[in-house]
Amino acid sequence: MVATPAHLLRSATALGNEEVMRIRNDFPILHRSVNGNPLVYLDSGATSQNPLSVLEAEQEFYEQRNSAVHRGAHYLAVEATEAFEDARETVAAFIGADPDELIWTSNATEGLNLLSYSFLNASLPGAPAEAARFALAAGDEIVVTEMEHHANLIPWQQLAARTGAVLKFIPVDDAGALDLEAAARLIGGRTRVLAFTHASNVLGTINPVSTLVPLARAVGALVVLDACQSAPHLPLDVKALDVDFAVFSGHKMLGPTGIGGLYGRSELLNAMPPFLTGGSMITTVTMERAGFLPSPQRFEAGTQKISQAVALAAAANYLSETGPARIHAWETELGQRLVSGLAAIPGVRVLGPAAGEERIGLAAFDVAGVHAHDVGQFLDSRGIAVRVGHHCAQPLHRRLGLTASTRASTYLYNTTDDVDAFLDAVAGVREYFQA
Amino acid sequence: MSLDQLYQQIILEHSKARHGSGLAGAGVPEGASSGQSHQLNPVCGDEITLRVSVAGGKVSELRWDGEGCSISMASASVLTDLAEGLDPDELHSVIDSFREVLRSRGKVPADPEILGDAAAFEGVSRYAARVKCAMLSWVAAEDALGQAVAAQDRTS
């Protein structure tokens, strides 16, 4: 194994195998077996596992405090509302936001759709004057990147199609990095929105937010950051990054499914037209019209994801207590171990940054002559769980000349033994399939 | 169930041999009516474009272009061997039989008398995530066969 280059190590002390073994005791599912082998879970980029504290928080809520929030004056309703809003405070602090700047969504996909639909509503005739800054018209431009997850591509495609705006993309080079010269050319006077991922779910690349944001600022474009693969894995401070919006998913950061978050700068959220409308987001309602509450209630119509929010706060606490910088440092080591190990296997092509280059703790790869589905099936027979397919990034795979790849993604509960078991299995793939 | 029961040798061989592969540029056989179908598995991006040609009341040729895992490619190859020479009703009933086995979660054994080499895919039925891979070309063939027969009926 190649040692992790010094410049990739953060000042924080990385977790180590011994500490990870203790962490694993908090995750019941990691102790089950699959196909007669101990489970080696390397699919946290898709969905992470839950520590007991998260499972218990959700159960405790249902056992003790279950009630509707922001309505009703009875005791349980008050406790439930407190738990719900405390959770918002915890998770907002976790990403460096103020509580009123965090909107609960079902997942990151809903957060991005909320933005695109709100901008669409702002573009319709009769939209309020305060919403004009979000309106798009024919000839306006939305800029994304070639490495986006479909969730950060299709909502913008749809918005462009409905408003007459033009969707442009920053290309990816052969090494899996954004072409920043092209970015500087593409982001121009007509650019209204720049939407890009913080860290690629396929390449593992961490994009240079501090380079891209000023390009958007210079032309007055709004900046949307997909933080799905960064919020769980590295210290995230949305204010320090100076983005206007950011989205993340709870289930990728030790939390339950069904909840995610949208961060938005307060002044923007309070000027944006609502997306979903109905109960709990209104002030005065007549048969003809309604007034809307400020953020975050403005964007939280209907009964909310209460137990999920409480559980997600427990997840954020678990990550905070472990230390996002330490988690990031450990996963950087695991990511480098993955890449250098994979690159040493004949016929294996690693996607994205080479060994020694910065990447998060995941690696996607192609095995010559063996389809990703078959690779995944082979690994599964050894109890190793990975993701196969296009990882919701078809354009990126097309750019790389592939239709599918296999991805191993680590988290704070993975050991170097997990990575080595995976590498050992991958080394046997081509022989098994006679490739 | 072991991996070897899923990836039987005959499947691995067909996944490389790819009988019937090579549709682009290949003309429809003279005097035949044909139908063509494109099927995609959006989960993994596997896809196939398959053409069935019918002449004289028999399936005269099956040609396809596809990209996918060993199961989907082998399945198309086996189907090609099996389909040519059958009459349309026979092919329909073979497809029905294959589908019944694949969707049975291991409960319906494959009859080698009917399915020939395709019986090797019996093990796939225990892997729910892979059933679509095996069915991809068969769904395409069913669709294309229907079109080919309809085209033949129009010309005869």
- Profile the largest sheet of chain B: 3 strands, antiparallel
Oligomer: heterodimer
Give, in spatial order, the strands making up the sheet with the most strands of chain A: 4-10-9-8-7-5-6
Net shape of chain B: globular
Number of strands of chain A: 17
Instruction: Tell me, briefly, the overall form of chain A.
Output: globular
The major pleated sheet of chain A works out as: 7 strands, mixed
Whole-number mean pLDDT of chain A: 96
The name CATH uses for the topology of chain B is Sufe protein. Chain: A
How much helical structure, as a percent, in the residues of chain A?
A: 25-40%
Q: N-to-C terminal Cα separation of chain B, in Å?
A: 50 Å
Q: Kindly, what is the distance between the CA atoms of the first and last residues of chain A, rounded to a whole number of angstroms? A: 25 Å
Strand content of chain B: 15-25%
Q: Helical percent range of chain B? A: 40-55%
Structure description:
Chain A is an alpha/beta fold and 435 residues long. Chain A contains 15 helices and 17 strands. Chain A has helices spanning 17-24, 52-65, 75-94, 108-123, 154-163, 180-186, 209-218, 238-241, 266-269, 306-322, 324-343, 372-380, 394-399, 416-426, 429-432, and strands spanning 33-34, 37-38, 40-41, 102-105, 141-145, 166-170, 191-197, 222-226, 245-249, 260-264, 282-285, 290-292, 348-350, 362-367, 384-385, 387-389, 405-409. In chain A, strands 4-10-9-8-7-5-6 form a 7-stranded mixed β-sheet, with helices on both faces. In chain A, helix 2 runs antiparallel to helix 10 and helix 3 (75-94) crosses helix 10. The longest helix of chain A is centred in the first third of the chain and has 20 residues, at 75-94. Chain B is an alpha+beta fold and 156 residues long. Chain B contains 6 helices and 3 strands; from the N terminus they run H-H-E-E-E-H-H-H-H. A 3-stranded antiparallel β-sheet of chain B has the order 1-2-3. Chain B is globular. Chain A binds chain B through residues 370-374, 377-378, 381, 388-390, 394, 397, 403-404, 432-434, and chain B through 2-3, 6-7, 12, 16, 43-47, 67-71, 73, 127, 130, 133.
